[in-house]
Amino acid sequence: MIKGLIFDLDGVITDTAEYHYLAWKSLAEKIGIEIDRAFNEQLKGISRMESLELILQHGNKSEAYTLEEKERLAAQKNEEYKEYIKQVTPADLLPGIAELLRDAREQGIKMSLASASKNAPEIMQRLEIDGLFEGIVDPASLKAGKPDPEIFIRGAELLGLSVKECVGLEDAEAGIESINAAGMFSVGVGSKDAMKEADYAVESTSELDLKTILDKASAK
Ligand code: BG6
Ligand code: MG
Q1: Given this model, what pLDDT does residue 220 score?
Q2: Where in this chain does the entry annotate a coiled-coil region (predicted)?
Q3: Which of 51, 118, 165, 203 could form a disulfide bond with 43, CB atoms 3.0-4.6 angstroms apart?
Q4: Beta strand 110-113 pairing with 4-7
C-alpha cells in the first residue's frame, strides 16, 4: 500500500526549472557558449557543478578553467538564479499541485522532498508549503546525486517508509532513473519522449490526481 509521495521540486512543484535554464543560458553566453532547451534537458535534476561541466563540454571548454574559476562561474549562475527565485510566491505552484498536496494531507499520505537543489528550502518557504512536508533530503549529504537512487531512498527514510510504500514524482530523465533504481513507482511529468522510462507519465502537472497515482502504483 502506498503511504508516501516523494517529490522533486524544480519543474514538478513549481516552474523554477525555467529559471535554472535562463540563468545557465545567460552564464553560458558570457563565456561564449550557446545552449538551447533541447540541451537543457540533460541539466535537469543534476547538481550545479555537474551542470557547469556539461555546459563546458558542450562548448569544448572543459579544460579552459581552473577549479576555482569553475566555482566562481557556478556561483555567478546561482546569484542570477537567486534573483529569479525572489519573485516566487504561493501563486507559483504549478497547476494541480496545491490540490495534490491537499488531497495527500487529507488522506494521511506523507510527503518528503528529493531535490538536487541547495536552494530548495528557500523555495519551499516562499511557496509556503514547507510545513506540509515531513522533511527535505539535504543534497549536500549525498554520496551520489541523481540518477543514483540514494536521494529517493533517503526521501523514503525521512518518512519512515519502505521504497515500495512510496511513489516518486519527477520531471527529469535522471530523476526517473533514480526513482526506478530505488525500486519505487515513478511518476513522470513532461514530454512523452523524456518520460518514456516512467511507470506512469503525464504531460502536465494539471493531469496529476492522487487517486489515479495511487491506483496505478498499487496495480504495479
Ligand atoms: C535540480 C535542478 O532540482 O537542482 C537542476 O533540476 C539544478 O537543474 C539542481 O542544477 C541544483 O540546483 P541548485 O539550486 O543547488 O543550483
Ligand atoms: Mg526537476
Answers
A1: 85
A2: none
A3: 51
A4: parallel
Q: Is 117 in the pocket of ligand 1 (CB under 6 A)?
A: yes
Task: Give yes or no: 10 in active site.
Answer: yes
Residues found in the chain: 220
- Side by side, the strands of the sheet bearing 166-170 are 135-136, 110-113, 4-7, 166-170, 185-189, 200-202
Distance 220 CA to ligand 1 centre (A): 30
Domains and CATH numbers, the chain: 4-14+94-219 (3.40.50.1000), 17-85 (1.10.150.240)
Phi, then psi, of 186 in degrees rounded to 5: -105, 135
Using a cut of 0.85, tell me whether the model's pTM lies above it.
yes
Determine the Cα–Cα distance for residues 121 and 112; give it in Å rounded to an integer.
12
Give the tens place of pLDDT for each residue, 171-199. Answer: 999 999 999 999 999 999 999 999 999 99
